[in-house]
Specification:
There is one protein chain. This protein is mostly helical. The protein folds into two domains: 32 residues, no CATH class; 130 residues, no CATH class. The longest helix is centred in the C-terminal third of the chain and has 25 residues.
Amino acid sequence: MTEMGHVRPDQLQLLRALPSWKGRVAAAHTVAREVRADDEYRLDAARCARVGLSALLLLLLNGRIAGVTGIFAGVLDPAGTDRAWRATFIAGLIAAPLSAMLIGYAVPVPQMPANLITIAFAGVLVGFGTRLSNGCTSGHGICGIARLSPRSIVATGVFMIAAIAVVAVTRHVVGG
């Protein structure tokens, strides 16, 4: 902790007294990976441009917002008349990383909690939040902000505040 985290010995003593200390120790094996990822990450403007370009093309050519949750909900809607493009879009989201992996690109493996109940509960919360805000992070955060939609700007701010709060509670209170 003192070397990698640049934590002074007196601060370390205070951290050890916290109820979350056991959780921090249990998660310590991930610190090196996180530091390495942080050191290796470089903002790739071309990658960001491709995401923005694909959202713009969907809007210009199809008149649709690239909100993944809304697109997926439309695939499941039995009364939907535009399910073909939606299914193609979702298939592309799945096929793209698989294709990249097949041609040799490194595809990161997501770090998932081992507890399936936690994953299911998180999924329900995300689904509830998506319905509550009438959209997801891709629809509001990428497309809505680009259109200067006040509702999307507020929704994205709420998403970010909630995410910061969850990480703070998880890492510093619960100790995960």
